[in-house]
Amino acid sequence: MSESFDQTKKRAAKVVRLLKKHYPDSFTALKYRTPHQLLVSTILSAQCTDERVNMVTPELFKKYPSVKAFAEADLEELAEDIRSTGFFRNKAKAIKKSAKELIERHGGEVPRTLDELVKLSGVGRKTASVILGNAYEVAEGVVVDTHVGRLSRRLGLTEHKDPVKVERDLMKLIPKKDWILLSHMLIDHGRAICNARKPKCCECFLAKLCPSAECPDRSLS
Predict the structure, then answer these.
(1) Could you write out the three-class secondary structure of the chain?
(2) What is the pLDDT of residues 164-196, one digit of tens each?
(3) From 74, 92, 177, 201, which residue has the greatest number of CB atoms within 10 Å?
(4) Whole-model pTM?
(5) What is the pLDDT of residues 93-120, one digit of tens each?
């Protein structure tokens, strides 16, 4: 018998409490110093690991130290600078164009609202939520990447694969004050325990709350 929404919400609250206990210092793995650097890093992270992005950005941010520098960058040269992150031509176009838009529309500053951010080139709702949550501590939604989506389904917090629908379900279940932290904690847990191919259910502190948990060595009940 499937649980009710209220039961799922109570279980979700227990999940969040345990995640906070085990990952008290969760934060984005992307390395940045300014909101614009985070915007660039987030654009680069599409279809690319955070580790790879962090290998590229130190030299990138030295070469292009400001929004103006990115706006005036030679497009082909910028593309070569970020080649190893994949889809580098499209990413270079988005980075350069969004920098121009920031100068033209916002005086070179990264805006603090979702509506303004998603109007920038290369910035969708997910990227905007990353920037708002990490650079400005503004919770506009839940960032749903592959880890967050996978764990949310395994934990029975959603049945959807579409990130927009996953986010909608999580926003109903989780208090707004935990939206930003939730993504970081689920990402950390996905990397440490609940990986895609072989989740370590027997080691998982969420096993008793997880309808997908399987441990042949001991009972999870």
Answers:
(1) CCCCHHHHHHHHHHHHHHHHHHCCCCCCCCCCCCHHHHHHHHHHCCCCCHHHHHHHHHHHHHHCCCHHHHHCCCHHHHHHHCHHHCCHHHHHHHHHHHHHHHHHHHCCCCCCCHHHHCCCCCCCHHHHHHHHHHHCCCCCCCCCCHHHHHHHHHCCCCCCCCHHHHHHHHHHHCCHHHHHHHHHHHHHHHHHCCCCCCCCHHHCCCHHHCCCCCCCCCCCC
(2) 999 999 999 999 999 999 999 999 999 999 999
(3) 92
(4) 0.90
(5) 999 999 999 999 999 999 999 999 999 9
